[in-house]
Amino acid sequence: MFTIAVPCGYKGYDYSQAGAYFVTICTQGRVCLFGEIAGGKMVLNDVGWIVVDEWTKNVLIRDGIKLDEWVVMPNHFHGIVWITHGTVRHCRSDRPVAPTAGPQPRSLGAMIAGFKSAVTKRINKSRQTVGAKLWQRNYYEHIVRNENELNRIRQYIIDNPKNWKSDRNYIDAGNRVRESMPEYGHEPWMV
């Protein structure tokens, strides 16, 4: 059975709640680092395989995490993450929460921060670029609300390599990012 967290608003939303989350993480400047698309398929280079290795380690080093569909693209990453620990709350608590430094433990933010950090360290070590930024500062997340949406997002992830040239993160031969793409929130999987 598909259980979801339905927020009453994103401000104060608890991203450590049980549920499914769709994430997109882009490289700094959307530079293509992880390989290339050939024949509609992603061909990973050595750096791309580091991303795969660190993503799949999440289930081994973090309790309460299940990975669903995911794909490494030349300059970004898409994945569906299930947080299986905790409870599903339908609205945020109105109790004030003391601000903390960094993401809440056992939350989506903590998982993504750990993943980005591990990938960055390994890639910088392999490229001898210690301290270089690899990822954009933030990431995109979407709370998956129902089974139909989950299936559309899964298909979007599966089809992403063959749709590379129409992707919002596509970089052409002149290293230019596609200019006329919609903002997140109007993605093909939402139709």
Write the layout of secondary structure elements.
Layout: E1 19-26, E2 35-38, E3 41-44, H1 46-61, E4 65-72, E5 76-83, H2 108-127, E6 140-144, H3 147-159
Antiparallel strand pairs: 1-5, 1-6, 2-3, 4-5
Observed structural traits:
191 residues; Alpha-Beta Plaits; globular; alpha+beta; four-stranded antiparallel beta sheet
Alpha-carbon distance between the termini? 23 Å
**How much is the average pLDDT?**
83
Q: What radius of gyration results from the CA coordinates?
A: 17 Å
Number of domains: 1
Molecular shape: globular
User: What spatial order of strands do you see in the largest sheet?
Assistant: 4-5-1-6
Q: What name does the CATH topology carry?
A: Alpha-Beta Plaits
| Largest sheet, strands/sense/barrel | 4 strands, antiparallel
Q: What is the SS-derived class?
A: alpha+beta
Instruction: Give the ordered list of helices and strands.
Output: EEEHEEHEH
CATH homology-level superfamily = Transposase IS200-like
Write down the CATH class: Alpha Beta
Strand content: 15-25%
Poorly predicted runs: 90-99
Q: Quick one: how many beta strands?
A: 6
The percentage helix is 25-40%
Second rung of CATH, namely the architecture: 2-Layer Sandwich
State the helix count.
3
Fold and architecture overview:
- The chain has 191 residues and is α+β, with helices and mostly antiparallel strands.
- The chain has a single domain, classed as Transposase IS200-like (Alpha-Beta Plaits).
- It contains three helices and six strands.
- The chain has helices at residues 46-61, 108-127, 147-159; strands spanning 19-26, 35-38, 41-44, 65-72, 76-83, 140-144.
- The strands form two sheets. It has a four-stranded antiparallel β-sheet with strand order 4-5-1-6, sandwiched between helices. Strands 2-3 form a two-stranded antiparallel sheet.
- The longest helix is centred in the middle third of the chain and has 20 residues, at 108-127.
- It is globular and about 40 Å long.
- The two termini are 23 Å apart.
